[in-house]
């Protein structure tokens, strides 16, 4: 049986390290949680993953790194790359060679050290140049080359330089714990469920329209969704958000649904009526010790795949507030017009109740939200923007006027008037997540406490 290739780091901070790829794979990156941790700012925290492939092969997968993983000078995409003896992998400032059954030539190990024409000893010149320069600067160097003292001085300088070079080479190349360190996960270690990256792609296309949707989640919890519907609805969305730990757990719960792990790698067919049509779905999940990549193209989706796909779409809509993409352009325009009418009504009744002005602002914002993905914008878009600006300006002025009355009452120590004016202020901006409401409510609590103490209460 052929022996599985090994990996040798030939340049970079860990040059000279050699390791095997165990059954659990080897994760490489800047984070100390990796199997191979390399202190290199050009590396991502979790940069790439080496895994066993077949009976005697290995493959490498880029883990959505910032600067990419290169094999023989070609940058990897989202797919894994099968490696063979002689291949070169580059990650950041580190180069890694794939070593077959035959041991590498002796000079191969010296390549990282002797990459340039000389070894830098930190003395400003190479040993040979140093010996020449020093000898040239000494008075004895002006004597004939055959003079015994000159020959002895030259020999001593050369020997000293060689000793220093040899010592540095030993420090750089000597293995730490054994002649050939093997880095591999413990066999009985419980697999880590931490998500490294998630990518969900959907493409629906024919000769008249292309709809593409992509959802990405990285190890730091950044959710990124981008979709285009052209020319069709001519709608574009590109949004990002930082997910909470709770949201990340919900994603893992979706991916751990029964049946998804058992799906095959690909389901393809020709169920579309026209050969120029395409309906494709792909979900790719990378964890530290596993990759699940499923493609469904031009065929009926397996139930387990469809359930995960729909759950991911619903999750992204809720987290990014882009649920409006599920409606047609006509429906979104209709919803916008209804919200605009509510805004107009609340504006007309702004003198009836203090909260109506704030309600008109919210209604106009909703009307614009429905039109966010609609292109070209309908004629009503400009009108709604003007109405929103008018309502916001009026609300700002009323808030400042009312706050002046509050400050005046507090400065005079008229706590009952201050209490009354603060209640009006809270009604003007009723949304609890509005900082202005929070400030007014906090001041109201303080005023009421002062009133209680003035009456002799505890």
Instruction: Please report the total strand number as a whole number.
Output: 18
N-to-C order of helices and strands = EEEEEEEEEEEHHHEEEEHEEEHHHHHH
Helix coverage percent of residues? 25-40%
Radius of gyration: 35 Å
What is the tally of helical segments? 10
Distance between the termini: 86 Å
Strand order of the largest sheet: 15-14-13-12-17-18-16
Shape: elongated
TL;DR of this structure?
This protein is α+β, with helices and mostly antiparallel strands. It has helices spanning 106-110, 127-137, 148-173, 245-255, 303-320, 329-348, 355-370, 380-412, 415-428, 435-454; strands at residues 6-11, 18-19, 26-29, 36-37, 48-53, 57-62, 70-71, 74-75, 81-83, 88-91, 94-99, 195-205, 209-218, 222-231, 235-242, 266-268, 278-287, 290-297.
General description of the model:
The chain has 458 residues and is α+β, with helices and mostly antiparallel strands. It is 38% helix and 22% strand. It is built from ten helices and 18 strands. It has helices at residues 106-110, 127-137, 148-173, 245-255, 303-320, 329-348, 355-370, 380-412, 415-428, 435-454; strands at 6-11, 18-19, 26-29, 36-37, 48-53, 57-62, 70-71, 74-75, 81-83, 88-91, 94-99, 195-205, 209-218, 222-231, 235-242, 266-268, 278-287, 290-297. The strands form three sheets. A seven-stranded mixed sheet has the order 15-14-13-12-17-18-16, with helices on one face. The chain has a six-stranded antiparallel sheet with strand order 2-1-11-10-7-8, with no helix packed on it. Helix 6 (329-348) packs parallel to helix 8, helix 7 packs antiparallel against helix 8 and helix 8 (380-412) packs antiparallel against helix 9. It is elongated and about 90 Å long. It starts with 5 loop residues before the first strand and ends with a helix.
């Amino acid at each position: 049986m052929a022996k599985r290739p090994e990996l040798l780091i030939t340049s970079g901070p860990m040059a000279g390290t050699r390791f095997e790829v165990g059954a659990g794979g080897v994760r490489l990156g800047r984070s100390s949680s990796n199997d191979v941790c390399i202190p290199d700012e050009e590396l991502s925290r979790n940069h790439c993953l080496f895994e066993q492939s077949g009976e005697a092969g290995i493959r490498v997968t880029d883990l959505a790194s910032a600067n990419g993983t290169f094999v023989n000078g070609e940058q990897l995409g989202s797919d894994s790359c099968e490696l063979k003896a002689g291949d070169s992998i580059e990650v950041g400032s580190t180069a890694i060679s794939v070593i077959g059954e035959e041991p590498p030539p002796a000079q191969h190990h010296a390549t990282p050290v002797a990459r340039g024409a000389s070894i830098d000893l930190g003395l400003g010149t190479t040993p040979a140049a140093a010996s020449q320069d020093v000898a040239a600067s000494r008075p004895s160097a002006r004597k004939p080359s055959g003079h015994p003292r000159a020959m002895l001085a030259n020999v001593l300088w050369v020997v000293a330089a060689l000793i220093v070079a040899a010592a540095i080479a030993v420090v750089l190349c000597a293995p730490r714990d054994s002649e050939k360190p093997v880095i591999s996960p413990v066999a009985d270690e419980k697999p880590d469920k931490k998500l490294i990256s998630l990518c969900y792609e959907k493409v629906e296309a024919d000769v008249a329209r292309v709809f593409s949707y992509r959802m990405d989640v990285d190890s730091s919890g950044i959710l990124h969704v981008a979709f285009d519907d052209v020319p069709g609805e001519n709608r574009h969305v590109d949004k990002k958000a930082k997910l909470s730990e709770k949201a990340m757990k919900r994603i893992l719960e979706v991916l751990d649904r029964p049946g998804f792990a058992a799906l095959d790698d690909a389901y393809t067919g020709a169920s579309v009526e026209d050969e120029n049509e395409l309906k494709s779905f792909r979900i790719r999940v990378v964890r530290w010790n596993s990759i699940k990549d499923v493609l469904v193209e031009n065929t009926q989706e397996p139930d387990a795949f469809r359930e995960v796909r729909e759950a991911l779409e619903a999750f992204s809509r809720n987290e990014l507030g882009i649920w409006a993409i599920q409606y047609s352009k006509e429906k979104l325009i209709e919803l916008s017009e209804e919200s605009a009418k509510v805004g107009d009504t609340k504006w007309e009744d702004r003198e009836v109740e203090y909260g109506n002005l704030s309600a008109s602002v919210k209604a106009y914002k909703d009307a614009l939200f429905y039109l966010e993905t609609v292109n070209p914008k309908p004629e009503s878009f400009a009108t709604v923007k003007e109405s929103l600006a008018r309502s916001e300006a009026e609300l700002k002025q009323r808030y400042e006027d009312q706050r002046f009355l509050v400050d005046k009452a507090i400065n005079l120590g008229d706590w009952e008037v201050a209490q009354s004016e603060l209640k009006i202020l809270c009604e003007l901006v009723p949304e609890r997540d509005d900082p202005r409401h929070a400030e007014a409510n906090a001041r109201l609590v303080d005023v009421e406490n002062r009133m209680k103490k003035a009456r002799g209460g505890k």
